[in-house]
Amino acid sequence: MLVRDISPSRLKKSISVAEDLIREIKDGIFGLVLFKGDAEESMPITDDTVSLTAILNAVQPDWITSPGTNIEKGLKKAYQVFSGTSDSNKVILLFSDGENQSGDPVRYAKYLGKTGIPVICLGAGTQTGGIIKLSNGKTVKDRRGTEVLSRLHKQILEDIAKASGGAYIEMHGTNNILQRIVKEFIRIKKGKYGSGFRVVKRERYGLLLLFSVIFLTLSGLIWKVRWKDTL
Q1: What percent of the chain lies above the pLDDT cut of 70?
Q2: Is the pTM of this model over 0.70?
Q3: Which of 50, 152, 184, 220 is surrounded by the fewest CB atoms within 10 Å?
């Protein structure tokens, strides 16, 4: 998460894109889920974007101490929060480097796809990778004292996206990330309701977002979209 193979770092880049989305979707309703080896809902559903942005900017890797990284648990927590709502248009937007130490996120992504919840994965990092520098300035080393190199695991993110009916977007070297995300929303919406859907001014969006930051090497954003009828 603190790796700087994308500028300014994987975490900060992910938060920056999240903030852009908050500003773009003016009438959004938001919640916050944080997870690493485990997952927890850290902010209830709210339209208080000021507080949400403050929490996002305060996120640190040591907020959750559970070991490992389990993408499946993060997706499950998102589904649990979604299950309390009646809206049918739900999308999970996951920012991640694809590193996963436990669980089976691809299998669970298939389940999400069957329930009508696609996952749009945004690759945070590069395949060249970078060292993991902690907040105290030290780097993570293995048992031999060699600095650990964290790389983007693109394949698992592509598999999660494909299994759920979503899409994969790589953040490194990609221009207009926000527009790419919106384009995928349009594609998903057309798939469910035919080609009659069209984009309207952003004031017409009805939106519930559940942000999810995956600690250590990942960061994530969970969306639930309520598309209003367009004329």
Answers
A1: 72
A2: yes
A3: 50
Per residue in 96-141, pLDDT (tens digit) is 888 888 999 999 999 999 998 889 898 988 988 888 777 677 887 8
> Where do we find the tokens 């693109």?
154
Distance CA 42, CA 79 (A): 15
Distance in angstroms between the alpha carbons of the first and the last residue of the chain: 42
Q: What is the structure's pLDDT at 205?
A: 37
Q: What is the pLDDT of residues 146-181, one digit of tens each?
A: 888 888 999 999 999 999 999 999 988 777 888 888
| Cα separation, 213 vs 101, whole angstroms | 16
Reading the block at residue 70, the tokens are: 């389990």
**CATH number attached to the domain at 10-226:** 3.40.50.410
The rounded distance, in Å, linking the Cα atoms of 129 and 40 is 28
Tokens of 95: 């920012």
Q: Which residue has the higher pLDDT, 134 or 208?
A: 134
CB contact at 8 A, 135 and 60: yes
Beta bridge partners of 168: 121
Please compute, for residue 146, the number of CA atoms within 13 A of its CA located in the half-sphere on the CB side: 5
CA distances from residue 12 to 3, 26, 61, 213 in whole angstroms, order as listed: 10, 22, 12, 11
Lookup result for tokens 């130490």 = 101
Query: Taking a C-beta distance cutoff of 8 angstroms, is the pair 109, 75 a contact?
Result: yes
Listed residue (231, 219, 227) closest to 19, CA to CA: 219
Q: Where are the domains of the chain?
A: 10-226
Q: Which residues contact 88 (CB under 8 A, 6 or more apart)?
A: 116, 192
